[in-house]
Protein 1
Amino acid sequence: MAEPATTTKTEQARTTTPLLAVEKLSAFHGEAQALREASLDVAPGEVVTLVGRNGAGKTTLLRSIMGLHRNVRGSVTFDGKTLDGRSADKRARAGLGWVPDDRGIYATLTVAENLSLPPVVDKDAAWSLGRIYEHFPVLRERRDFPGTKLSGGEQQMLAMARPLRAGSRLLLLDEPSEGLAPVIVDKIGEIIRDIKSQGVAVLLVEQNVRFAGTVADRHNLLAQGEIVESLPNEEFRSRTTELLQHLGM
Ligand SMILES: Nc1ncnc2c1ncn2[C@@H]1O[C@H](COP(=O)(O)OP(=O)(O)OP(=O)(O)O)[C@@H](O)[C@H]1O
């Protein structure tokens, strides 16, 4: 009998039931169609990207998954349950964690208050403050600082830590590297890899392709509202120049 083929980690992740499954999602801004039948999935503990140039539809796709953009067709399933027609609040309660590109930090509240404000959505999955501080030591140091006194990188870390504190099992990250110095981007990369090691999944919108290749398991390339290619990280890294030319980036 033939030996069973060995499977890579990515293949193993793909054969597990997806945590998030998006099927044929189309989205509209008024009459204009910003997203065309986009399908993708994310397995538990997997980091998956949406890569594409400005206006490709990345943020619209992320917002549609979170239920913040409602003019959509198609389906979104999380942990085997449909999210279609559900509000963003209900989707957060199901386990989706929203990390917007403006980071959404409450400026006058301290780091500790920002962390404690969102309601816990899942008692078993919620990280304690102690666990947050263990994985984000800079937030422990800054715990009594107001949001206004944080650097861009610290704000980004706080924005990522907040849904973990609430118990999200998948983070939707919109361009976490934007506007940050390269050394801080590397730090954000370390945190994403650390979050993954804790079993939390990530769907990441990125224009920084070098960064995307250091953190993700798989990539979805978006052009004019369509996912034109979906590929594992190894292939993405070996074909980066060609793919970027193809996307006009
Ligand atoms: N509120 C809006 N009203 C009308 N059109 C919009 C709106 N938001 C986005 N669009 C259009 O939808 C398309 C997709 O935009 P989207 O912001 O999703 O792209 P993106 O890939 O995230 O780009 P960027 O990185 O520049 O945000 C673009 O053509 C954009 O002009």
Note: DSSP finds eleven helices and ten strands in the chain.
Protein 2
Amino acid sequence: MTTFSVKTYNNINKIGLRELGNAFQIDGDHKDNPDAYIIRSENLHGTDFPENLKAIARAGAGTNNIPIDEATAKGIVVFNTPGANANAVKEAVIASTLMSARDYIAANEWVNGLTGDDVPKQVEAGKKQFAGSEITGKNFGVIGLGAIGGRIANDAYRLGMHVYGYDPYVSIETAWNISSHVRRVNDIKDIFRNCDYITIHVPLTDETKATFNREAFDLMGKDVTIINFARGELVDNDALFDAIETGVVKRYITDFGTEDLLNQENITVLPHVGGSTEEAELNCAIMAGQTIRRFMKTGEIINSVNFPNVKQDLTSPFRITLINSNVPNIVARISTRVSEAGINISNIINRSKGDHAYTLLDLDESDEAKVKALAAEFDSSDNIVKVRIIKKS
Ligand SMILES: NC(=O)c1ccc[n+]([C@@H]2O[C@H](COP(=O)([O-])OP(=O)(O)OC[C@H]3O[C@@H](n4cnc5c(N)ncnc54)[C@H](O)[C@@H]3O)[C@@H](O)[C@H]2O)c1
Ligand SMILES: O=C(O)CC[C@@H](O)C(=O)O
């Protein structure tokens, strides 16, 4: 029994996709006009949304590859999978911190270049160039204390570092999980002024773009390591090159390569693999699959970035879901229409986020034709962007 269709992009873990269950056809006949997308880093900017598309699940955290405003205006609900790959990125950042302190990549390259019977002797003679430093006791700054940054701050403290955290928007839930030993600062400049290592874990937005700019580097001391597993555009590369030149930045480690960053002595570029572990890819696919299944089968929204969370058990024969503009009296107008259609409402929930709102309208009505007629009326109404009928299974 196939009821819904999903198109996937970027190798979504197949085991995770089983969460969709057998009501979903994956990449099948309807893949050019599916109900939902499950994607990773596919860039959807500049692409057209198919007519039938109702949901996009980003198997991962960052949604800057999705034109959110356009999706919202079309009533397409965009989800992500909060925290599902956070441990993978945390481990990548801890490894990067240690690699910057000890420069093992260069050390390994140097040893591999040695030849002759006296390699052990050459090693002992030349190893002093790779004497590193220890991270214990150093100042470590974390910008963005969400799923990834919060975990990193805690572990850096456990490794003996003095940890500073900056996040003016941290959620209460996340804040509860952050060690009281992490020193929260209210001004990002305190991170730039005080830290030997700075890692950033914020979404890419107009506000966060080029967080590392000339002013930021001017506040730093010497030999600072910058770690960026969030998004490339958070760093102004020209300002970074000058900061490397003047000894302010000792090393820049990033997961986001652009041509100007490649093959530079003080820069380590990785191929966007911070979240690429077996475990994280499975976690993300499972969460994305569960989210899409729930939304398509019940209309409930959990973990959306453009619509509010809305949960309500479906106990009536039919539910109509409405995506509507967030205008005054909309609930009253919806209720009036339902009563004019001679139908009783068994439950109604309406939640708004910004300019849009989402309504679950549960109907005490078993006559499908009547429900369809009501839905068609909503569909042709001003201020209603998307209408779906869900039949209780
Ligand atoms: N390299 C990878 O493979 C990889 C994997 C996962 C996530 N990421 C990137 O990392 C980002 C963070 O992921 P997450 O799972 O921690 O997300 P998250 O939503 O849990 O945390 C983001 C945190 O940033 C904070 N924040 C927002 N604006 C800020 C600002 N101006 N200054 C300081 N803090 C601010 C938020 O309050 C939140 O606590 C993602 O948006 C994504 O771009 C990359
Ligand atoms: O899906 C990926 O490959 C990377 C994911 C990462 O950038 C994220 O934002 O979660």
Note: The mean pLDDT is 97.
